[in-house]
Amino acid sequence: MAVATILDPRYKIELWEYYFPLIYGDEAENEIQRVRDTCYEMICNYTSGRMGGEEKKKGGNIKLELEHYLEDDLMPRTLEFDILAWWKSNGPKYPTLQCIARDILDIPVSTVASESAFSTSGRLLSPHRSKLHAKTVEALMCAQNWLWAEIKGLSSIVDGIEANAFQNILDDSDDEEESGVTTLRESETYS
């Protein structure tokens, strides 16, 4: 995540230089240097994959590309800013960083879409696809159903089952062992 933030021309390393002292205290400088070293290592790996032996020997150019990028002014933080378009137009100036940005910034934040994670149409949630505990998913689904019921004007029905549903969830968590896989079925919803 640190590399992705550095590759965002609105933040670069300045975000880490602000937050790391708050998070790491006296170790902040070491952590910032570790992030820089990771960036240099990535640039070396990308460069060695793209270029022959002569270019690989020019390690100074690798550091210069990152340093020039970090020294350039930050872009304004606006909602309209398109980071991928920025890298496309500024790629010739930072060719290795552009390759890294294209690979890293293209990774989706989550592999489970929120609609499918909380869908009640029988989809499967497993530890591989979600870090949420089965009981947490069940509680979130109940909350989702209650909110939809309020929107649809069914809040009186919700009020009647709310206390029972939470008690059932608590009772189930006391009685069950963690199974690892939770199947969500239409019949388990409270709407």
Q: In a nutshell, what does this entry contain?
A:
The two termini are 38 Å apart.
Protein architecture, described:
The protein has helices at 2-6, 14-24, 28-50, 53-56, 59-71, 83-90, 95-104, 114-117, 134-151, 155-175; strands spanning 124-125, 182-183. With 191 residues, the chain is mostly helical. The protein folds into two domains: 2-104, no CATH class; 114-188, no CATH class. Helix 3 (28-50) crosses helix 7 (95-104).
SSE layout and pairing:
Blueprint: H1 2-6, H2 14-24, H3 28-50, H4 53-56, H5 59-71, H6 83-90, H7 95-104, H8 114-117, E1 124-125, H9 134-151, H10 155-175, E2 182-183
Helix pairs in contact: 2-3, 3-5, 3-7, 6-7, 9-10
Count the beta strands. 2
- SSE order: HHHHHHHHEHHE
Kindly give the count of domains.
Answer: 2
Strand content: under 5%
Q: Separation of termini? A: 38 Å
Parts with pLDDT < 50 across at least 5 consecutive residues: 53-57, 177-191
Strand order of the largest sheet: 1-2
Give the averaged pLDDT, no decimals.
71
Given the C-alpha coordinates, what overall shape results?
Answer: elongated
Radius of gyration: 24 Å
Q: Number of helix segments?
A: 10
* Classification by helices and strands: mainly alpha
Major sheet attributes: 2 strands, antiparallel
Helix content estimate: 55-70%
